Automatic annotation (TrEMBL):
UniProt source species: Paenibacillus endophyticus
GO molecular function: beta-fructofuranosidase activity
Matching SUPFAM superfamilies: Arabinanase/levansucrase/invertase, Concanavalin A-like lectins/glucanases
Family membership: Belongs to the glycosyl hydrolase 32 family.
Protein name in UniProt: Sucrose-6-phosphate hydrolase
Protein role: Enables the bacterium to metabolize sucrose as a sole carbon source.
Pfam families found in the cross-reference section: Glyco_hydro_32C (PF08244), Glyco_hydro_32N (PF00251)
EC numbers for this chain: 3.2.1.26
């Protein structure tokens, strides 16, 4: 068996979490108490709480044998860290409890995950990945004696045994289904569908879809769900080739709109696009809550890049995005931040003005903010704003009306984040095509100590990225190359538990220029 246990992990966290430095720790995004965090797992609504599990290596701010960290929340914003749910302590998962999902069954919380076993690090072909179950009550989880429930013998011909991971489980018409990422013998990604009546005995249904080396390599972290009469498939293809301004990161997240044939397992899609156009968004998962909302949360990071907080010895790495509500409008998947974030607003400042040139806004500055900005060009062709500005630092958000593109530039945002060689030589900038809505560009921007999330035109496009500026780089500046009308609302954002204000002390005022 592996050398890691849940008790060891929890003891280590309790003993060492005080060593974590807070300089870049997020105020309203989830990060683990100490150590390394990546993919969200088991994102679910259970027994009145939102539950978030995640790939976790508590012992250092770098990947290692993966555990399942665990947190819960009443409102998706303020999270309570819970004891580690699983450690790699069984023969079938001794080298990692890899990603998976959760489902409620008869009042119990069932986790379905990938057991990772790597008997010879010098020979990746000997890796075995199988699908396993653990059952719990929201705090404590026990792995099934009969694990793995889907072994290597359940793979179809041509599927590689070493790449078979990340099950998403759901129930439909009295049966359980699971989609699982796989790699075919031609080195391309594919998604497999399985069916079960009891979660313990599974039957292979078919290949849902396969990339054929035309849409990336290994397809990781599939998530399939219904929206109306259509089936949305979200997946994370590795090494998807750049297509203009799309798929610029070393790994991507895409969504497809189509229909699944539950009898054959075939998935036919009519539309596909990138889900987020920023630098740091990967392996998202969705849940449906008691309000009927389809909510998505992703890992706000990207593989194969340096992470400044870890490099600086801060003892942590990785955080989650804001949870977002999904809606399907035609073929477009919109993402909007959950309304619960509004409960953490304070110090409201608003203004409306016309601009031609540059204007620094000292009343708007800050490092943990929500900004709502509407630009109406009245002759300007390029306009936008700079955030987290300092003497030599700035993060630039630019709209080019002539080309209908919005750009995010972090090339001068602080500590350098080196991009992978495969990322196209466009270091520091990401761009997305998006038009004006009734002649207006609407932005919702969320700044945390080391991140920026941008929702464009009600979330038809999003850009999610990490940044690591100096603590005193808090300025905000508007700019344009011609006349533009600007309306802006700004709030501080903070956790209620960290806020000493009372409701009657909330400041709200208007500023005109």
């Amino acid at each position: 068996m592996g050398n890691f246990t849940v008790q060891q992990a929890n003891d280590y966290i309790k003993k060492n979490e005080h060593l974590v430095l807070q300089d870049y720790r997020p105020g309203f995004h989830y990060a683990a108490d100490i150590g390394w965090l990546n993919d969200p797992n088991g994102f679910s609504f259970f027994a009145g709480d939102y539950h978030l599990f995640y790939q976790y290596h508590p012992y250092q701010a770098a990947p290692g044998p993966m555990h399942w960290g665990h947190a819960k929340s009443k409102d998706l914003i303020q999270w309570e860290s819970l004891p580690v749910a699983m450690a790699p302590d069984a023969p079938y998962d001794r080298d990692g409890c890899f990603s998976g999902t959760a489902i409620e069954v008869d009042g119990q919380h069932v986790l379905m995950y990938t057991g990772h076993h790597n008997p010879d690090p010098e020979d990746p072909g000997k890796i075995r990945q199988t699908q396993c179950l653990a059952i719990g009550d929201g705090i404590t989880y026990t792995k099934l004696d009969e694990n793995p429930v889907i072994g290597s013998d359940a793979l179809p011909a041509g599927a590689l045994l070493q790449d078979f991971r990340d099950p998403k489980v759901w129930r439909k018409n009295g049966s359980y289904y699971s989609v699982i990422g796989s790699r075919y013998e031609d080195d391309s990604g594919q998604i497999l569908l399985y069916r079960s009546s009891d979660l313990r005995s599974w039957q292979y249904v078919g290949v849902m879809s396969r990339s054929g080396n035309k849409f990336g390599k290994m397809w990781e972290c599939p998530d399939l769900f219904e929206m109306g009469d259509r089936d949305v498939l979200i997946l994370s293809p590795q090494f998807l080739e750049r297509d203009g301004e799309r798929f610029c990161n070393v790994h991507s997240v895409t969504y497809m709109i189509g229909k699944l044939d539950y009898e054959t397992g075939a998935y036919e899609y009519e539309y596909a696009d990138e889900l987020d156009y920023g630098f740091d968004y990967y392996a998202p998962q969705t849940l449906i809550d008691d309000k009927g909302r389809r909510i998505i949360m992703g890992w706000m990071q990207m593989w194969d890049r340096n992470i400044p907080a870890a490099q600086l010895g801060h003892q942590w790495a990785g955080m989650m995005t804001l949870p977002r509500v999904l809606s399907l409008r035609g073929n477009l998947l919109y993402q909007e931040p959950v309304k619960e974030i509004e409960n953490y607003r304070s110090h409201h400042v608003t203004f409306k003005s016309k601009l031609n040139g540059k204007r620094l806004l000292p009343e708007m500055e800050g490092s943990q903010l929500e900004l709502k900005v509407a630009f109406k060009p009245l002759g300007a062709s390029k306009f936008g704003l700079k955030v987290r500005m300092g003497k030599e630092e700035e993060t630039v958000l630019l709209y080019d009306a002539d080309n209908g593109t919005f750009s995010f530039d972090r090339s001068r945002s602080g500590h350098v984040i080196q991009e992978a060689p495969t990322e196209g030589g466009i270091n520091g900038v990401r761009t997305v095509s998006v038009g004006l809505e009734d002649g207006i560009l609407n932005l919702s921007i969320f700044l945390d100590l080391s991140s920026v999330e941008i929702f464009i035109n009600d979330g038809v496009k999003t850009m999610t990225s990490t940044i690591y500026p100096s603590a005193d780089s808090n300025g905000i500046e508007l700019f344009s190359d011609g006349e533009v009308e600007v309306t802006m609302d700004r709030w501080n954002l903070c956790h209620k538990e960290n806020s000493k204000r009372m409701e009657e002390n909330i400041i709200s005022h208007s500023v005109s220029f």
